[in-house]
Amino acid sequence: MTAGGDLARAETTTNLYGALGLNTVPNARMDPAGTIRAGVSTADPYVHSFIGFQLADPVSVVLRQTAEVSNINDEPDRLYPGLDLKLRLLEETAYTPELALGLQSAIGHKRSAGEYLALSKRYHDFDFTAGLGWGRYGSAGHFDNPLKILGHFDQARPLDGEDPNQPNDWFTGEKVGVFGGLEYFTPIDGLSLKADYGADRYAAESTAFDYDAPAPWAFGANYTPDIRGYRGMDIALGMLGTDKVMARLSFDGNIKNWPTTKHEIKREVPFRPYRTGLNIPSQMELKAAAENIQLYNAHADTRTASANLTLQNRGSLPLQIGRAAKHMANHASPHVEELTIRPVRMGLSGPEIRLQRASLEKSAAHNQGSASEVWHTADIRPADKPALKRSHRPNQYDYGLEDIYLSIDAQGSLSEEDSTGLYRTSLIVGTQTPQLFGLMDSFFSLRLNVADNLDRLAQIRPRVLLPVRSDIDLFADRTFAVETAFSSFTHSFRSDLHLSMMGGYLEEQYAGVGGEILYRPYDARWAIGGESFLAFKRDPQASMNLGLNGDHLLSAHIQGWYDLPIWDTTLNARFGRHLAEDIGGTLALQKRFRNGAMLEGYVTVTDQRDFDLFGGTTSSDHGIRLSLPLGGFKYVPDNVDADLRFVPFGRDIGQSLRNPIPLYELTEPFSARHIAQYWDEVVQTP
Fold this sequence. Notes:
Layout (H helix, E strand, L loop, with lengths): L34 E9 L2 E11 L2 E10 L9 E13 L7 E11 L5 E10 L2 E10 L7 E2 L30 E11 L5 E7 L5 H7 L7 E7 L9 E8 L3 E11 L28 H7 L3 E4 L7 E7 L6 H15 L6 E8 L2 E2 L2 E5 H9 L5 H7 L1 E3 L22 E10 L8 E15 L3 E13 L2 H6 L11 H5 L3 E15 L2 E9 L4 E10 L6 E13 L9 E17 L4 E9 L5 E10 L5 E14 L5 E13 L10 E7 L16 H4 L5 H6 L9
Parallel strand pairs: 15-16, 20-32
Antiparallel strand pairs: 1-2, 1-13, 2-3, 3-4, 4-5, 5-6, 6-7, 7-9, 8-9, 9-10, 10-11, 11-12, 12-13, 14-15, 16-17, 16-18, 18-19, 20-21, 21-22, 22-23, 23-24, 24-25, 25-26, 26-27, 27-28, 28-29, 29-30, 30-31, 31-32
């Protein structure tokens, strides 16, 4: 390592609370985007369990549940959940430190809440950290709050209480504290030593149960062993002062390393190296050669051959465009020089993609070019009208295993004040049935509830009269049920304006009718849209959950998306009326990976509150969603995936009907971002 040099990201480790840091204090470091860390730590009087997600290079989120317990084998006296955020403001250079802003329990219990500004600087084998803390991180009260000149920030701040920490509590308090420390990376591979001085004086604990706070300094050893090339296990042991032991165990990995799905394409044929004297065949002949192409403007004397391409659910748009262009070129007359393809997906149509036949022949047939050369001669244009003809699904009456999808649906929560970790695991199997008159798509799926511990909810929480999602334990109690059964109509007025309408059983807990409209220029970083549903609550006591309990609700939202190019991440904002008739907004950050994985975090705040057993309330909901394709594993088909969610169970506020066919997801292959990211596949042969 050099002074101010590159910090090896494998050496970043967590602190006691699950954020990257030293022993008890945070630092300014960040993991690479896509990193997931999960672990447990203990130091009297708490046991902390946590799972962290690096949503983007400068944005980290940790879901944490702190249990008040002196002996790790005892039942906890209280639980203090929290969502912790960390934002990198400046990246380290040779002469400047890395700077980060953090909020512990930004949303969560006051007991663990604190904000900080931390900076870190690497010098050879030493990584130095210093910071300024508010709330729990500033309870030492070293000097006056420097933000008091801005208004309410110098107000007295309670460090405990049943009301949750909220934005108006952030960075408040009469006093702030200073913390600092260092980490030394020893010559022993994977071993580092940490020492720090904190500003946490355990004021809430000393008041609540006469807690004997440790000295403010801590010392510990951290070891990351190399287990057959895996460096994701982290073990730490240390002392808080001279009388309290600290221990931590965590594991991490990166979604980028997830196996890429195998896109098995049937009846693949090679690119003909030389043009033939054949005329372009009729539409039926070409459709037989390539099931998903519908040809038009295919006269023998024209210089352009045009076609609609019905996209398959697996495989990038450039991969499928390359295959379609190969089929078209193999059957085209020698006069054709331009291949124009219009992608179509579930009745939605994207921009026109015009490829030069000569560039494709040079790259794909003669191996004398590259995808970048095809890109420079290609032309992608918006279309001011829908595709010439709505495409039917290929072989719509020839069903096989590839027409059935299987999803592992798993949900866990560390965000509960009245129960330790809750979980639920289900299997969802479904299919898309043949189109009706080429206009309506129909979907049907079944849910098999495999395992859960949601029976605790009925024991510890009162049942509300008109539940929105707080009766989730009743739905989980049924072994087998209908998940969805609905029909939809989708249409593109132009390549940038799309509509969907649907009706039926739209998700596990609701039936309904509604729709969505989306304006999304293919080459823009932004999109806007709106959706509205009349939702009918399903009855968990009815057979297969098919009955309705008579309660109906109207929800409506406007929303927008913006692609953040530096982070390769999408910001989503939505505002409107939720299912509990509460009004609120949501901010979400979504990261897509080339291997098909997707990571998303969100926070919702509304004008109503949910209550807990301890007299506290919350007006927010938050969660993390991780979607993983499983087709990269041996013997696993492409159409199998896993949907993992880390969200609170049974929240009634801030809930929306889960749109089963979101237009932004459906139109993602039409976007310039997707096309550019996967363009190298346009000349690949799977």
